[in-house]
Amino acid sequence: RAIDGIVIQKSMDHFAKPLITLTVLALVSSIATGFRGGVFSVTFLSMVYLTGDIISRLTSDTTQVSDLISQNVNLFLRSFVKAVGIFIFMFGMSWKLSVVTIMGFPYIAVVSKLYGEYYKKLTKEVQTALAQANKVAEETISAMRTVRSFANEDQEADSYYSRLQEMFVLNKKQAVAYACFMWSSYISELALQVAILYYGGHLVVTNQMSGGTLISFVIYELELGEALESISSVYTGLMQGVGAAEKVFEYIDRKPKHILDGQQAPETFEGQVEFKNVTFAYPTRPEMDILKNVSFNLRPGQVTALVGPSGGGKSSCVCLLENFYAPQQGHVLVDGQPVNSYQHKYYHSKVALVSQEPVLFARTVQMNISYGVPEAPMEAVIRAAINGNAHDFITGLSKGYETGVGEKGAQLSGGQKQRVAIARALIRNPRILILDEATSALDSESEYIVQQALNNLMREHTVLVIAHRLSTVERADNILVIDKGCVAEQGPHAELMARGGLYCKLVQRQILGTVIDADVHNPSPAPPWKLKEGDKESAEDCSDTENEARY
Ligand SMILES: Nc1ncnc2c1ncn2[C@@H]1O[C@H](COP(=O)(O)OP(=O)(O)OP(=O)(O)O)[C@@H](O)[C@H]1O
Fold it and tell me: Among 96, 276, 358, 518, which one has the highest count of C-beta atoms within 10 angstroms of its own C-beta?
């Protein structure tokens, strides 16, 4: 109208009115722009806040989702609203020219759809390749000493490089797809402009349209082209975000196979454990039964030792008692109730595990001991450390209980880590204590002291010990020999020795090994654990070559 006002009517009045309208619209539009920016910032800040808890696990994917979506949804919405608005104006000006414009749309839509799908697929593949590359890097860095000690740096670097190469190939495909898409959208836009000018010129020449209207139409068409262009470029980013989001939601939507929804939290918890005809296979290998119809009892005040050949299923029994998995058949009962019927937090405040290779967290010693019970007072932390024979070495550290232990406890020695882990178990005063060769990394003096502390605990608690060193289990009230997923025999040490079965053979193997060791390397001192004469004899009695080979 402004153009027609000057070019055709040649009147300032006709020109001024649309100019005022333009000014008002510009003002309103700038306010709307500010509002849009503000609303988006707030919305996406809260989105990042919501994804914060999973960000550590899925850093790159979640960051990509929130970055790409926050940047692109904003632009996409603006361009979309703008394109629709412009189109309505164009239609109001000349439906004929608008029809010419629309004719180009199906082509643009089909190309965008195909491109979007392809780009999304590539993005998912890139995410997977990146995750694999990161896995290699993470594993190598966290196991740097192992890599060094085998001088395998080059192979690890090569393996990382080959994963990056895979990603690079995918990135190149993305770049080619983007180039083709851009090329086709520019061509289609250009073709559209030529068609509009050609047909519009014809309409003006035949007096079906004023020159000013054609100019406005062309200006709108340019704006429309700009809006469509930004929609298409944003579309790439959005598809990338959607691809990454699908991966993130795959994780979020994963349902745990073993659900921790137990509700029971009784006031008294005695710690009577019963494995009742338990058959168990790991979910990753469902066809292979690791435990077969296993039944046994653990009683409060008693120490039960699990022994047996490697791979027999001892740790798997611990996993079931810790409620990490559910058995396929049979029941794991504590005080007559299935372990999964107890409330998760409650159960693990009553059942504590000290594993063979305890994992500490990159926090202070005090935080590691009070892990899971952050409200525990300092006195309780110190008491637990004293009972675990860790107090002396902790007070000798530069910052005492405030000393950081490094990633996975790497700044402590094996024995120190184990003592902190024992203190971490003792602080909760558990009713059931599971010790997986818990004293294996200690020197004989520390072991003696820790053993004393554990002995005191053992009188009131249900204790399950997994031991390879038979000296550790000699004193147990009951010994369960687990072999190939079955309870091969059970009873106290003397009874099993007299029976002359598998246990006897295991003992005999160790005694002979130790005696030979002591003779060869260190003829004078006594072996690390004391043998009674009778044991040695009975052990020799049950020697047999087939079992020699197995154990
Ligand atoms: N997460 C797992 N997924 C699949 N199979 C597993 C898993 N963990 C252990 N196994 C298999 O279960 C069997 C029993 O393993 P388990 O760790 O219970 O034996 P173990 O008696 O404790 O052995 P060790 O004395 O060597 O520690 C082994 O054959 C092992 O390969």
Answer: 358
| 297 vs 230: which has the higher pLDDT | 297
Alpha carbons 12 and 365: distance in angstroms, whole number: 83
Amino acid at site 488: A
Q: When comparing pLDDT for 130 and 291, which is higher?
A: 291
At residue 441 the predicted structure's pLDDT band, cuts being 50, 70 and 90, is low
Is pTM beyond 0.80? Reply is no
Average pLDDT score, the chain:
80
**Closest among 510, 470, 512, 478 to 495, alpha carbons compared:** 478
Dihedrals phi, psi of 481, to nearest 5 degrees:
-100, 115
Tell which atom from ligand 1 comes closest to the C-alpha of 482: 21
Write out the residue limits of the CATH 3.40.50.300 domain(s) in the chain.
Answer: 273-491
The CB of 316 under 6 Å from ligand 1? The reply is yes
Residue ranges of the chain assigned to CATH 1.20.1560.10: 55-127+182-251
- Asked if residue 439 lies in contact with residue 432, where contact means CB atoms within 8 angstroms, the answer is no
User: CATH assignment of 273-491?
Assistant: 3.40.50.300
Mean pLDDT of 5-11: 75
Indicate if ligand 1 lies below 6 Å from the C-beta of 332. Answer: no
For residue 56, report the distance from its CA to the centre of ligand 1, in Å: 29
Determine which residue's CA is closest to atom 10 belonging to ligand 1: 282
247 lines ligand 1 (CB under 6 A): no
CB atoms within 10 A of CB 49: 10
- Quote the pLDDT of residue 109: 79
Q: What confidence score (pLDDT) does residue 19 get? A: 83
Nearest-atom number in ligand 1 for the CA of 285 is 4
CA distances in angstroms from 411 to 59, 71, 301, 359, listed in the order given: 27, 43, 36, 12
Q: Which atom of ligand 1 is nearest to the CA of 468?
A: 25
Nearest CA to ligand 1 atom 6: 282
Residue nearest to atom 4 of ligand 1 (CA): 282
Highest CATH level, class, for 55-127+182-251: mainly alpha
- pLDDT band of residue 183 (cuts 50, 70, 90) is confident
Tell me the best of 290, 292, 319 to mutate to test the pocket of ligand 1, counting ligand atoms within 8 Å of each CB and taking the most: 290
Please tell me the distance between residue 276's alpha carbon and the centre of ligand 1 in angstroms.
20
Q: Would you say the CB of residue 387 lies under 6 angstroms from ligand 1?
A: no
Q: With a 6 A CB cut-off, is 418 part of the ligand 1 pocket? A: no
- Which residue pairs, CB below 8 angstroms and at least 24 apart, start in 218-221? 218/193, 220/86, 220/89, 220/90, 220/93, 221/90, 221/101, 221/192, 221/193, 221/196
Cα 505 from Cα 470, distance rounded (Å):
11
Ligand 1 centroid distance, CA of 282 (Å): 9
> Rounded to whole angstroms, how far apart are CA atoms 481 and 132?
41
ipTM for the complex shown: 0.94
- Average pLDDT rounded to a whole number, residues 189-193: 81
